[in-house]
Amino acid sequence: MFHRNAPLTPTDRLRLARCVVDDGWPLRRAAERFQVSHTTAARWADRYRQLGAAGMQDRSSRPHHQPRRATAAIEEQVVRLRREHRIGPVRLAARCNIAASTAHRILRRHGLPALAATDRTTGEPVRRYERSQPGELIHIDVKKLGRIPDGGGHKVLGRAAGRAEQDRRNGTGYAYLHTALDDHSRLAYTEDLPDEKAATCAAFLQRAAAWFAARGVRVERVLTDNAWAYTKNTWRDTCRDLDISPRWTRPWRPQTNGKVERFHRTLLDEWAYHRPYTSDAERQAAFPDWLDWYNYHRPHTGIGSQPPASRVTNLSGQHT
After folding, report:
1. How confident is the model at residue 263 (pLDDT cuts 50, 70, 90)?
2. CB 48 within 8 A of CB 18
3. Same domain, 299 and 172
């Protein structure tokens, strides 16, 4: 990529050089014709004499000699520690007695991606995938969330007061947030249900499929983990009745269902824990507006900073 203010492209450099070398133009005349300095015209003419047309391309600005560059032994140590312990540049710098920026450059030179882009278990780069059309694959998962007692929990009352108000025997219990998220568009449907039993999960799938159908999306496959409810005949029979193909993640591989896992993290950050609530009813009342904002208005970095509804045909235009 050339600098935006560069006066000459490789094609213009070649034309200038040919005017001087092949046609015998004086350097000052060629410089005036191509609106560059005399020294610039001389440089491209000299390169043309030495290298021909191939010499008109940009060269790297990296110096030929770098006496302060990290030694091969240090680079080997940085790479080895990264692969063995999967730590970032700051911790690598402390162990190898170098600057963090040096550790970062070494990692880049050796093609080692950022930790966020690697698998936590193996350290290998994460293989990302995305279905080509809405409905081809729906991710389903359940997020267990503690309910808020009336009057507020520890975020309102403080840690000490919140613990004192806890009822150990008759607590407020948990909300089970069942979510169905489309792989291609990231369009999401979520319900707060009392449990995660097989019948509850199957009924949720029926309502989720109807919700997506109302928005022009036919569910073809669903992907879940290997939780008990998703392995029973109730789930399989419901999928068969809806003409949906069930899929399951490999054991101990939650990354496969990572899109809905990431949605739940966003849900916690931007709704459940976004501000102190004085009751569970208050928090639940705020949820429909947040989900509407997520689906229709919130820029999603995974799909080019567009809202999920923008990837569903005509859906974004129907919403106001």
Report:
1. very high
2. yes
3. yes
DSSP letters along 204-263, please? HHHHHHHHHHHTT----EEEE---GGGGSHHHHHHHHHTT-EEEEPPTT-GGGGHHHHHH
CB 143 within 8 A of CB 272: no
- In 3-state terms the chain splits into helix, strand, coil percentages (rounded to 5) of 50, 10, 40
Q: Which residues pair with 192 in a beta bridge?
A: 177
Structurally, the chain folds into a number of domains equal to: 3
d(CA 69, CA 88): 20
Name the pLDDT band for 152 (thresholds 50, 70, 90): low
3-state DSSP call for residue 174? strand
185 and 156 together in one domain: yes
Instruction: Please write the tens of the pLDDT for every residue from 241-262.
Output: 999 999 999 887 777 888 999 9
Dig out the tokens for 110 from the structure.
């050796």
Nearest one of 300, 90, 272, 312 to 192, comparing CA atoms? 272
| Cα–Cα distance for residue pair 199/238, rounded to 1 Å | 10
In a domain, 181, yes or no: yes
Whether the CB-CB separation of 44 and 8 falls below 8 Å is answered with yes
At a CB cut-off of 8 Å and minimum separation 6, what does 69 contact? none
d(CA 85, CA 104): 16
Are residue 262 and residue 225 in the same domain, yes or no? yes
238 and 100 fall within a common domain: no
Contact between 104 and 98 under an 8 Å Cβ cutoff? The reply is: no
Q: Is the per-residue pLDDT at 162 higher than 60?
A: no
pLDDT digits (tens, 9 = 90+) for 275-308: 889 889 999 999 999 999 999 999 998 898 999 9
Q: Is it the case that residue 218 has pLDDT exceeding 50?
A: yes
| pTM given for the model | 0.65
